[in-house]
Amino acid sequence: MSIRRAAPRSGRPTRLHSAVFQPIGDEGRVALVERRIAEAIMGGVLAAGERLPAETELAAAFGVAPATAREALHTLRERGLIVTRRGRTGGSFIADSADPVRFAARTLLDGSRVSLRDAAQHYLAITAACVELAARRADVSEIAMIRTRLERTTDHELATWRRASDDAVIELAALSQSARLTREQMKLQGEFSPLLALVDTDPASRASGRAHLLDVLNAVGSGDAEAAAHALRNSTRVAVDWLIAYREQHIVGAPTIPTTSPAQPAPAWAATTRMERSLT
Asked: Which residues touch 119 (CB under 8 Å, ≥6 apart)?
């Protein structure tokens, strides 16, 4: 199977999906191949049941030796993230048990509030730069196409919604016409999307995130860079607020996946923090 043909079950390759299989350079080998694929799985970029390229194709895509790709796949199998099937239709497939939301919950609880704030600030800085440039450089018809695709996607199915919203953000980054910012956005989206998926387990928060993203698109479409950045800051602030509340409620126990917002906690932004000041 060709790398170029590797695509999500929807049959339409996405920019974020394609970014998974890019050369890793000389700085990493087995660990970096494993990490990139694992993060793509846990970020929902590679969906359960999706077939990975063959070892030789993976090796060529990542720019490593076939033995390196083989060892990385072996480690992913041991972690239960992929399964291997024999026969004519065999190969390595994303395991049905690979759960991006549980991965995000573990990551959140294993980290600190400082690391969460730092990750959110980095994500906001790059994404805001992308949407501001897109507001100045994108054609209104291009934004209309992104908005139409997003509006056609319901937010009832978490995985489908996350893929659609990630695609929209990456497409906005591409419309900034900055190759460097777009590459950085693709990388950050893969890292931050699992946390956004955790937030989106709450239907109310998912609807709020959808509304905020549409606000960003509307502002970019009207050429209002300031309003686009403002909508993005609001969205990020609400998501971090939710994640902090979730972490505080679950830090002493095993991670559980909420089905509603965490008991409507008092806003984590009530006390002035560096995160609040930096996001305003």
From this structure: 191, 192, 195
Owner of token pair 């960003």? 216
In terms of domains, do 190 and 106 share one? yes
The whole-model pTM stands at 0.70
**What domain range includes position 207?**
100-279
Instruction: State phi, psi for 24 to the nearest 5 degrees.
Output: -95, -10
Same domain for 23 and 107?
no
- Looking at residue 73, which CATH number applies to its domain? 1.10.10.10
Which residue shows structure tokens 């505080």? 248
Residue 265 CB coordination number (10 Å): 15
Judged by DSSP in three states, 51 sits in strand
Phi/psi of residue 97, nearest 5 degrees: -85, -10
Q: How many CA atoms lie within 13 A of 224 on its CB side?
A: 12
Q: How far is it, in rounded angstroms, from Cα 201 to Cα 198?
A: 5
Lowest mean pLDDT of 139-148, 175-184, 224-233, 253-262, name the range: 253-262
**Same domain flag for 250 and 112:** yes
